[in-house]
Amino acid sequence: MYEDTLARVRLFSSLDRKELQALARACQERKYSAGDVLIKQGDSGAGLFVITNGRVKVTRVVNPDKPEEELHVAGPGEVLGEMALLDDLPRSANVTAVDDVTVLLLPIWEFRTTLRNHPEIAFKLLATLSHRIRRLEESHSSNH
């Protein structure tokens, strides 16, 4: 049911239908009201969010003495927190619902259970990440 939504997530671009279905079974739909905080800067990551309806504001506190800095507004089809699936680092920004928002949540613990049961998915994700790192390194070295 959710595999079409997951297919649009860049991290999952190399997965086939069966693999997307395995991840989709772990997803939950969540609804938030305008003003609700989905992600709090500094918290541990709950998982990956795909916005299916509504908009959220992404902000970050750089200096506690200054107002938070707005990074961008995200809407349907956008993904938040994909790196939280892979590392245990604290969230780097706040995400607050601008409107009533519906998201697809892939919880981190469900994601990791799916990887244990389907190790081929992990290998494909490693390849995707490797390509991303290679592109970053190439663009970084060509800028110097």
Tell me what the structure shows.
The chain is an alpha+beta fold and 144 residues long. The chain contains four helices and eight strands, in the order H-H-E-E-E-E-E-E-E-E-H-H. The protein has helices at residues 3-7, 17-24, 108-117, 119-142, and strands spanning 28-32, 37-39, 47-53, 56-60, 69-74, 79-80, 94-97, 101-107. It has a four-stranded antiparallel β-sheet with strand order 1-8-3-6. The longest helix is centred in the last third of the chain and has 24 residues, at 119-142. It is globular and about 45 Å long. The N and C termini lie far apart (46 Å).
What secondary-structure arrangement, pairings included, does this model have?
Elements (H helix, E strand, L loop, with lengths): L2 H5 L9 H8 L3 E5 L4 E3 L7 E7 L2 E5 L8 E6 L4 E2 L13 E4 L3 E7 H10 L1 H24 L2
Antiparallel strand pairs: 1-8, 2-7, 3-6, 3-8, 4-5, 4-7
Helix pairs in contact: 3-4
The overall pLDDT average reads: 89
Principal-axis shape equals: globular
Distance between the termini: 46 Å
The biggest sheet, with number of strands, parallel, antiparallel or mixed sense and barrel status, is:
4 strands, antiparallel
Number of strands: 8
Which runs of at least 5 residues are low in confidence (pLDDT < 50)?
A: none
* Tally of separate helices: 4
Strand order of the largest sheet: 1-8-3-6
Radius of gyration: 16 Å
* Helix residue percentage: 25-40%
Structural class: alpha+beta
Order of helices and strands: HHEEEEEEEEHH
Q: What oligomeric state is this?
A: single chain
Task: Please state roughly what percent of the residues sit in beta strands, choosing from under 5%, 5-15%, 15-25%, 25-35%, 35-45% or over 45%.
Answer: 25-35%
